[in-house]
Model the fold of this input.
Amino acid sequence: MKLSRRKFLAASGGAFAAAVAAANLSSLTAVAESGHGDAQTGEKGEKHIASSCEMCVNKCGFYAHVVNGRIKKLNPNPHFFKSRSMLCARGNAGAEEPYNPERLKTPLVRDGERGENKWRKISYEEAFQIVAQKLAEAKTKYENRSSVAFFSSEGLQEGSFQMLAQTYGSLNTVRHPSLCLSSTIQGWSSVYGVYPDADLANAMFVVMPGANRAEALVTPDSMDFLRYRPKGQQLVVLDPRFTNTAAKADRWYPVKPATDMAFMLGMINVIINEELYNKEFVANMTEGFEDLKAHVQQYTPEWAEKECEIPASEIRWCAREFAKYAPRSVIYPGRRTSWYVDDVAFRRACAIIPALCGCWDVPGGIVPKAGVPLKTPDVMYPFYDMVEERLDVESFGEFDNNLPDDARKEAGLPLDSVAYLGEKDGSWVRFREAVLRGEPYPVKMMMVYKQNFVEAAPNRVKTLKMMEMMDFICMIDIQMSDTAYYADLVIPESTYLERWDVVHSLAGIWPIATFRQACVEPVFQTKSMFEITAGIVDEMLKIPELWDDTDEEELEYFKEDFVEAILHAPIQDYIKYQVSGYENGYERLLKEGVIYKTDQGVYGTTKNDAYRFKTRSGKIEFTNVKYPEKGLDSLPVYRRARQPKNGQFRFILGRHGWNTHTGTQNNEYLWEIQKENTLWINSKEAFKLGIKNGDKVVVKSSVGEQSLRAEVTEKIRPDCVYYAHGFGRISKGMSLVYQKGASQAAILEDYIEPISGNAAMHETFVTVSKA
Amino acid sequence: MATKKFGIVLDAKKCLNCKACTVACKFENMIHPGENEYRIWVTELELKGVYPNISQEYQPSQCQHCENTPCASVCPTKATYKSAEGVVLIDYDKCILCKACMTACPYDARYENVHLHAIDKCTFCYQRQPEGREPACVETCPTRVRVFGDLNDPESEASKVLARNHSYQLKPEKNTKPRLHYIK
Done:
């Protein structure tokens, strides 16, 4: 008998109980490849199955209405209070995903040059054998498991992919946060120890710098900011674009890009100098107030006005109103904050304001996320001799091209050492740079799950160059994304409506946990990432060369406790174990799609004397205690960003409500809402350039150019231009958007924020001319 | 005799133009994608002002389920009719696609459904009524723009919202008496 702590399944019990939904699933029969045809599963009758959405990251709840084995519609789940009983356009359009005619239906191996779009169909078994063989080749040839990089994107099956990465033993796992929110996580955490939420349902004064909750939908925030908005709430939006959020705001400040920090520092100056701050809170809960006070004397509202082009009187008004309504006042933390090379400092300035006014962990304030505790099996992966540390770590050297030439670079701060690198996430842009350099060791193979970095990461030319250097690229996805298009082997995954996914705690003010159960059988006999991992690991175990640098006994434990007990068991056993701490947890999930401890907001968990914030000092830190050790500013210091020269525009990014990143444009129901993107350009600037609405224009940066139609509008500052993400595709497997509109990745320059490693995607200047 | 009078009260100021309603409607009513066929839609009203003093509003709309129905009056085959609850419906078998109703409708709320070989439009998701469920657009809306209910019942949420607020109807000069009420 082995160690009992490894035997987690003993607790979760035997065979998969006859679950309501699964019992209804009939045996699979072939389905017409046309996609839109009726799913001929032979199943009769109607049912409603609770599961959660994967059209974006929010995992809103729904009941799938299944008629005769085919999904008719997804309806909002009223029990799922995190998503407030709604589904957005994407959530509704998800019902199309399993039947999309351009789904990947069978594994494909490249049968021509990379990117030539010639493929040969193979079986899953063959695909698993190829992957295992290539993993073994890489390990033998380079004598370093880290020569294989594992790229993945957020989702309930990402854990299954990480199981594969851990089994192989590479430390080079590159996740999505450094293309998204790692700077805001780092910035807010450097003050509070955590990345908190803003309680929009109860706040009376809300400042949203750049966040676009009316279009970049986040549950529950996007619902709360209009639906549960308290009477009298003031919403202030800072954005160079007049977004749908700005359209709902009480005041819209078209802030000059890269200067939002000046606005925040001006507010801090007023709050401190007019003694509007919460003296008791500051004295008891915070660290470094006197230093902050001295530091912000230089940042008067009049100074800020010159930087950010928002009147000093407005900055004063904001500071006073914020303090007046405190603690029911928030600066909204935001999500996709891959903006500028000093983004962490900006987020620190944002985070300091609520701390000054005591707007912490109370209704209407900034609130730390609560979670729903779940059990996780304690898996011991083998330790291997042939592993090097991450390729993007500081000790492997700096790169000199990751900051633009301006005051921020001249300050002598660390350039791109990525002071706080995510151990599992990495820094996407720096990682690519390190691969291109090839030192101190080569990365020659890529396993990619769902991450479409060809369109998601800035500077597409460089990404394609990195891919050219690879011996082998394996992509796992549901459609032929641009990244899959350049792969050597493509393995289709089942869509979220056809598979079971493990339980995930959705932390927040209203914490719940959810999972996924199959609403229909896989339309094209595809597999989930969990099953793909199991298939590949089984093939790996047949190759002795893959296991000669580890301890034999460790390997036996691993086979028994992980391969047999987890991978070879139904995923439902894993799910049952996760929720085994809850009475009828599994049954509740099957029936309602959700478990929770309370349906009330969770506040006040940090409001006791014994609580220690997860900062060095254990308090809320105005001055960060640990930053100076890495040569970083302990307080947010404003350094002027360069601005576009005459004839140039700053290219800014944004979201809208009917597509998620690059993943949903090839869904017909969403495509009919937006068929291609357009360049937003201010009408005065367009007039100067002789550009009329609808004209074809060329947008050019230092790394590439794209052409698309112009949208001449009053809704953007004259010094910037914008177009939406996810168009101008190079994959012929996405025929609805293939070569429609323009790609962002093609023109974005690849600067990084050097503390978090986040891409800095608002630092690109472009010229615009008539095509 | 107190009969039901189904209607919708809309607060367009809450509309995000997120299109959740239009996509939900398509699935609920099996309207094919990509063919510009809509039972409901959201119009971006003209942007007001010049940068940086601008404002914009959205107007969700659909069949207004009028009490006076020009569409029914002109229909030569009586394909358009009213349900007991005042919901304007179409008998697809009777429709001969003469499109007279499309011309008569002041709200441009009808379209040709090429798959049904008939004129089609919003039915307040009439198929959901036996189960007492709200129309799909109402149910899915992230910000709850629409409230659906019996306007003859003063206790219905729709009646209460209507009573609490000033409201208006689209194109009152057409004297069609729509059952969609927009909150001012």
Summary: The first helix of chain A runs from residue 9 to 12. Residues 159 and 582 of chain A are 22 Å apart (CA to CA). Chain A has a mean pLDDT of 93. Chain A touches chain B through 46 residues (CB under 8 Å).
